[in-house]
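PROTEIN–LIGAND DATA SHEET

This sheet pairs a single protein chain with one bound small molecule, copper (II) ion, given as SMILES. Inputs appear in the order they were entered. The predicted three-dimensional arrangement of chain and ligand is reported afterwards as a token string under its own label.
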Amino acid sequence: MSIKTSLLILSLLSSILWVTVASANVNSEQSIQPQTITLKLQNMTCALCPITIKKALQEVEGVQQVIVDFDTKTAAITFDSKKTNSDALIKATTNAGYPSAIAASNVQ
Ligand SMILES: [Cu+2]
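PREDICTION REPORTED AS:
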């Protein structure tokens, strides 16, 4: 086998490897879709409570969207699962005076 042929084989092998790694990256990025959870909140008593809760949640890094519903006493939160998690969100509402628990989640 000539040096030229071995080099060709080597570069072919490395490009195959590169493609494999690249497609693996695409797969893992697809699995990092924004996550959404719904928290059931305690202590919501007045119209200002949702504002306080929303502020507390928005201060958590990675939180993208917060929708607090006073009637159902829930907060729907969209967040980057690489930056935060449900535990941190529950902690944020609890620290603000509103203990919460997960009511629904798309997190597997
Ligand atoms: Cu209130």
